[in-house]
Amino acid sequence: MFGKKKFLVAVLLVICLMFTACGGSGEPAGEGGETVKIGLLSIDDSLPFFVAQEKGFFEEAGVSVELVPFGSAKDKEMALEAGALDGDMTDLIVTALLKKTTDVKVVSYALGANASEGRFVLLTAPNSGIETMEDLKGVPVAIGNNTIIHYICDRLQTMNGFTAEEKLTQNIPDLGLRLEALMAGKDVQAAILPDPLAALAEMQGAKTLVDDTLLDENLSQSVVIFTQEAIDKKGEEIQKVMDAYFRAMTYLNENQDTEEVKAWHMEFCKIPEVLQDTYSTSTYTPNALPDEEMIRSVVDWMVEEGLLEEAYAYEDLVYDGFVKEN
After folding, report:
1. In terms of DSSP bridges, do strands 87-90 and 36-40 run parallel, antiparallel, or are they unpaired?
2. What is the rounded distance in angstroms from the CA atom of residue 39 to the CA atom of residue 15?
3. Is the model's pTM score more than 0.70?
């Protein structure tokens, strides 16, 4: 019998091939080179990959790359588990959860090497009457369970003296629905959203309680991961991919205000039209990895939440072979 798990894997492989045919990209590699497949969402964190493609940096590096766009993080992670992808842009929470079933390693930051990169905002609904963090005690905050936003929420609540009983959340995984519910202000009085949805909520009257880019502590990060199998089999190709990726980060930083970069940002990151004149392109930090303190903070929290039985060691989650000294 064709088991359920094998059937799921087959379906996911077909889905990934469909995405690649519709929106992925491949570039010619050097003779004998293998294609590296990377799953992405259309967000700021992924922009350097798309720019490396547009500028021909992958081609110049002599590597074939397929950037496979996904509409949801869940589908992307399932495709990685199914073996349809070599790498992925995700967060540290998801990485540690994936590690339970698939040997994956963080190979670099995407966004969040410092607190100013990658904005997440704790917002309250218009006319909610919630003006301070003190007012928020005992009020459910809309998040996505078991994600970096869940971690951010808990850390912000702890930093502001919330007791366990006052730390309330409600799970709304879909970001669009979370924004819609916040703006309606009926069932959701507070939520955490990433940009550009946070900027859109602010424009529409939501009140900002905490902007994590203004904190002294760096709470939010996204990372690039690859499976250990891909690292072992395609190490040379992945090194070329990452070199081109870091080159694209530098290009974006140096050309942030050009019409070319603004156009790519609008196209690839799906920025709402209403924000196109005010929303800024992120800055990026090439050749950077989370340090041991960052990894320990995240995995210790996951153990406390029952998401992991025991904390992973730094070496279990991080591979430093593709980053170079700045």
Report:
1. parallel
2. 12
3. yes
